[in-house]
């Protein structure tokens, strides 16, 4: 079974919204919630009318020195409106082929 809750979106900034969905016993005269199971869930709606922020999926990655390269995933958080971008550079400890503090590329995300 799936419960669908309609989300109303607009083009204006709104604070993030949190609400709960709860299951109740249909035979209860006073709308008593079921208590024995996971009968409540919290939903958070993140406002998508802001560009958001870019960040790394992981803050620490360990690789063997014999690898040719390492892939580092960038994610977009807390928004999806418009395009966000950043410059990517290394803060080198002497182990990358590009040299110390090299700019290695750019990243952009669009909605």
Task: Characterise this structure.
- The protein is an all-beta fold.
- It has 2 domains: 1-47, no CATH class; 53-109, no CATH class.
- The chain is built from no helices and 6 strands.
- The protein has a two-stranded antiparallel sheet. The chain has a two-stranded antiparallel ribbon with strand order 3-4. The protein has a two-stranded antiparallel ribbon with strand order 5-6.
- The radius of gyration is 23 Å and the shape is elongated.
Outline of this structure?
0% of the residues lie in helices and 30% in strands.
Helix-strand blueprint:
Elements: E1 17-22, E2 40-45, E3 53-56, E4 74-77, E5 84-89, E6 103-109
Antiparallel strand pairs: 1-2, 3-4, 5-6
Q: How many helices?
A: 0
The count of strands amounts to: 6
The description of the largest β-sheet is: 2 strands, antiparallel
Structural class computed from helices and strand pairing: mainly beta
Distance between the termini: 31 Å
Which of globular, elongated, flat, extended, rod-shaped describes the shape? elongated
Domain tally:
2
Rounded average pLDDT: 78
**H/E order of the elements?**
EEEEEE
What percentage of residues falls in helices of 4 or more residues? under 10%
Question: Which percent range describes the beta-strand content?
Answer: 25-35%
* Radius of gyration from the alpha-carbon trace, in angstroms: 23 Å
Strand order across the largest sheet = 1-2
Uncertain stretches: none
């Amino acid at each position: 079974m799936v419960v669908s809750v309609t989300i109303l979106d607009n083009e204006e900034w709104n604070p993030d919204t949190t609400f709960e969905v709860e299951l109740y016993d249909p035979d209860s005269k006073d709308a008593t919630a079921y208590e024995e199971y996971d009968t409540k869930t919290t939903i958070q709606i993140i406002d998508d009318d802001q560009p958001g922020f870019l960040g790394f999926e992981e803050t620490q990655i360990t690789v063997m020195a014999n690898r040719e390269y390492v892939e580092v995933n960038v994610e977009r958080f807390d928004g999806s409106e418009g395009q966000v971008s950043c410059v990517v550079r290394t803060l080198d400890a002497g182990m990358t082929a590009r040299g110390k503090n090299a700019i290695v590329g750019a990243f952009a995300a669009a909605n």
